[in-house]
């Protein structure tokens, strides 16, 4: 009785023919769907999963990259650089143009080229931002639906709070009242907490509470202070939009198809739409490349662009939606003059400083010792415990801090933060040297970011070839205010380590910032900063009827029927936070907006 059933189930899940994530276009049953989603990334998979909850709606996802399945570096938290770094098979390999504000350095502009997009390769930090960030989005778009109170239920819907991999007592490290427990994305505290270092960080909040108060949970909407970081990790493994939203149960839905290795080039066959005078144009399909051939996928209801903050504006521009003069210069016929496409990019500049420490409890004890490294890997492999359960990147704690209210910098530029309970700075506390290089001594680092930047960048086309890499200008530190402010952020790092408890533990810093003049410190910032990979705003929301912006508050592209953008591109200004949580809630609300439009 039981044996045949078990066999049938095995065959069902194991059978290649039943997998609906298609490697080969020859197996794709159709090129006509209700919805075509371009990009199976952080946002795209959320929308695919939510829309296909309705069995009467058919969805195709076109993803340029390969599957996340079986990619160990995308699964083991400590190894994520192996999937994120330029030159990996899972990277778009983009480089920025020289950044004049950052000593003309060009930076790798990392973007995930893999199912799950950046959620399959990011640094895991789970930070929602300040309530004031979202209330500013509501004000900037004229839509209360983007306010903190209205968005908050979407944070809970997205999240599954999980025990840390070491099952330690987490009391006093977070506030359970503000977390979701049933959502697709696992969130947890450190599973290998580096107690010696953590004790110094927490002790400093007691010794210098005026400048660095302890904050039980930075995800409450009031992030200011120092607290334990939370991560999109569950049971020692990465939780991404691919693992969380495209579960086997979702993938088996007969109304959902995902095609890999399919890179969209542009929207095709613009025709006159009959929807409303405000939306005069509509597109009949999405052109994409699979192998060396071009295909067109058709959407009878909507095309949804979720190709991320580089891919989405590039596809819009390739399709003739953008600044008419710039399109003309490349010989691309303008379908709709929408000058904001690719503009108003907003990104966080990061800098930092390291100290040698009188201890061997640092990442170097693992990364610089092959025996220990192999032991740690084997432990993860055996039981999903040990140091490999945590990210190699962001650190143990984060602090969200402000310039003093009477800072002379506000004479140079008015306060760019969304309000007095939102940060100007992030500080990350890391048990390792800031630069990943071979070094046998032990270090800790304090990383400072300017998280309410004034500078803006852009994505523009380099050629009329839709597959050519676009021109990426982060505008990093292009506004003087950001560089001067980031220098103040580094001073806060020095102040943090002046607390008495660090004596005897901290050795010399790798660079003596305390001895620098203000001009030297600003020069140091310009020479030693890099991007946070938190780009937003390249297809930004603005109020309905505004003469700038790319999408309306319901995420529909202005002037076009049947086309939405749902990904980090629509966020009009970067929040004081790492950007996956905001992307997840934009996608969750975006899916609801689509459902409401077609119910
Ligand atoms: C290295 C790195 C580390 C980060 N660390 C953190 C962190 O610790 N915490 C945090 O909160 N945030 C972090 N972020 C930022 C965060 O991950 C992103 O803001 C967010 O995931 C963006 O989601 P998205 O849906 O807009 O785009 P993506 O997730 O990039 O999705 C876009 C998808 O579209 C696909 N695509 C693009 N162009 C095309 C095309 N033409 N045709 C078909 N498919 C296409 C891509 O391959 C990708 O799968 C990090 C980002 C990076 C790059
Ligand atoms: C990035 O470079 C690596 C190494 O050459 C390659 O495997 C990968 O396919 C490249 N990514 C893209 C999107 O071309
Ligand atoms: C950056 O490059 C520009 C153009 O080549 C040059 O004018 C400028 O002096 C350079 N700046 C620095 C700091 O090197
Ligand atoms: C950028 O956004 C601001 C609103 O924040 C708007 O005033 C401006 O016109 C936008 N610029 C472009 C080029 O879209
Ligand atoms: C760390 O230092 C202690 C005491 O000096 C020593 O016993 C231990 O072997 C060291 N561990 C590592 C991993 O270097
Ligand atoms: C390297 O790691 C091994 C195993 O943990 C440990 O015994 C050894 O002391 C370490 N070596 C150094 C130089 O710390
Ligand atoms: C992980 O475990 C498998 C067997 O379960 C083994 O084949 C593999 O070598 C292990 N890898 C590591 C890094 O320990």
Automatic annotation (TrEMBL):
InterPro entries: FAD/NAD-bd_sf, GMC_OxRdtase, GMC_OxRdtase_N, GMC_OxRtase_C. Keywords: FAD, Flavoprotein, Signal. The keyword Signal applies. One of its GO terms (molecular function) is oxidoreductase activity, acting on CH-OH group of donors. SUPFAM superfamilies: FAD-linked reductases, C-terminal domain (SSF54373), FAD/NAD(P)-binding domain (SSF51905). Residues 1-18 form the signal peptide. The keyword Flavoprotein applies. Its cofactor is FAD. The active site is at 534 (proton donor), 578 (proton acceptor). Transmembrane segments: none annotated. Residues 308-322 form the Glucose-methanol-choline oxidoreductase N-terminal domain. This is Alcohol oxidase.
């Amino acid at each position: 009785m039981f044996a045949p059933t078990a066999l049938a189930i095995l065959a069902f899940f194991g059978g290649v023919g039943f997998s609906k994530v298609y490697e080969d276009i020859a197996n794709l049953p159709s090129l006509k769907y209700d919805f075509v989603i371009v990009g199976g990334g952080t946002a795209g998979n959320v929308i695919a999963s939510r829309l296909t909850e309705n069995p009467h709606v058919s969805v195709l996802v076109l993803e340029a990259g390969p599957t996340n399945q079986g990619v160990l570096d995308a699964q083991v938290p400590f190894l994520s650089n192996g999937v994120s770094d330029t030159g990996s098979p899972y990277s778009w390999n983009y480089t920025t143009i020289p950044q004049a504000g950052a000593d003309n350095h060009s930076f790798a502009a990392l973007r995930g080229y893999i199912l799950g997009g950046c959620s399959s390769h990011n640094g895991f930090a789970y930070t929602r931002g300040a309530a004031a960030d979202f209330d500013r989005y509501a004000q900037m778009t004229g839509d209360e639906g983007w306010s903190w109170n209205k968005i908050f239920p979407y944070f809970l819907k997205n999240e599954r709070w999980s025990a840390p991999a070491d099952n330690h007592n987490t009391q006093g490290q977070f506030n359970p009242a503000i977390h979701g427990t049933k959502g697709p994305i696992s969130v947890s505290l450190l599973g290998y907490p580096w107690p010696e270092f953590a004790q110094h960080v927490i002790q400093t909040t007691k010794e210098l509470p005026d400048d660095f108060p302890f904050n039980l949970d930075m995800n409450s909407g009031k992030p200011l202070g120092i607290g334990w970081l939370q991560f999109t990790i569950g049971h020692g493994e990465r939780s991404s939009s691919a693992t969380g939203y495209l579960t086997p149960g979702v993938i088996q839905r007969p109304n959902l198809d995902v095609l890999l290795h399919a890179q969209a080039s542009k929207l095709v066959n613009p025709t006159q739409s009959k929807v409303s005078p405000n939306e005069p144009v509509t597109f009949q399909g999405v052109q994409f490349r699979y192998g060396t051939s071009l295909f067109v996928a058709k959407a009878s209801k909507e095309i949804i662009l979720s190709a991320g903050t580089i891919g989405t504006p590039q596809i819009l521009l390739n399709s003739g939606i953008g600044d008419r003069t710039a399109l003309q210069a490349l010989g691309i016929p303008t379908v709709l003059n929408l000058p904001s496409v690719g503009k108003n990019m907003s990104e966080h500049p990061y800098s930092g400083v390291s100290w040698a420490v009188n201890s061997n409890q640092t990442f170097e004890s693992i990364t610089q010792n092959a025996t220990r490294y192999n032991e740690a890997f084997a432990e993860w492999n055996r039981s999903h415990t040990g140091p490999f359960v945590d990210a190699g990147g962001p650190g143990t704690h984060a602090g969200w801090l402000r310039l003093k209210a009477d800072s002379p910098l506000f004479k140079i530029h008015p306060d760019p933060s969304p309000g007095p309970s939102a940060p100007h700075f992030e500080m990350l506390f890391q048990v390792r040297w800031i630069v990943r290089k071979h070094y046998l001594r032990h270090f800790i680092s304090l990383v400072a970011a300017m998280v309410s930047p004034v500078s803006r960048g852009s994505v523009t086309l380099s050629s009329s070839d839709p597959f050519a890499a676009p021109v990426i200008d982060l505008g990093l530190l292009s506004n003087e205010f950001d560089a001067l402010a980031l220098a103040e952020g580094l001073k806060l790092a020095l102040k943090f380590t002046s607390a008495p408890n660090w004596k005897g533990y901290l050795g010399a810093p790798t660079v003596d910032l305390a001895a620098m003049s203000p001009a030297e410190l600003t020069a140091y910032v310009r020479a030693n900063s890099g991007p946070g990979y938190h780009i937003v705003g390249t297809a930004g929301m603005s109020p309905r009827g505004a003469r700038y912006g790319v999408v309306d508050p319901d995420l529909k592209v202005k002037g076009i029927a049947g086309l939405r953008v749902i990904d980090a591109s629509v966020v009009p200004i970067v929040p004081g936070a790492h950007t996956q949580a905001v992307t997840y809630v934009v996608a969750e609300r975006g899916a609801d907006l689509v459902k409401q439009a077609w119910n």
